[in-house]
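QA checklist item 7 of 12: single-chain prediction sanity check.
[x] sequence parsed
[x] length recorded as 128
[x] structure emitted
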Amino acid sequence: MEIINTIGRRKTSIARVYVKPGKGVIVINERELKEYFPSEILQTTVKQALAVSKSEGNYDVTVNVEGGGFKGQAEAIRLGIARALVNINTENRPALKKEGLLTRDSRMVERKKPGRRKARRRFQFSKR
């Protein structure tokens, strides 16, 4: 089997994911998973698609990710891995779909408007 290439996005993060058969090594931006995401919660988020499809330890994952923060990057990687697992074996699709791992979370930060303090927050009103 050759290398499967997919993309995952979340907020302003973009993750290019490369999956190939291997021993379960996950490398993000040329760093080990535990080094890149010290938080246990974000490590679990990244591995979630592999756990749901029961293929932990079967594939080596290499990721190039840019933009956004830690959580957005972790969720972008999760989407990319889920898409790659469906490309490898379509039998994974129902389980991943049920967990909501194949849905692109399109929520983005609302832009700041002129005359406002934030996107919707107004400046304090003074009657006198």
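[x] summary fact logged: The helical segments are 33-36, 40-52, 70-88, 93-98.
[ ] second reviewer sign-off
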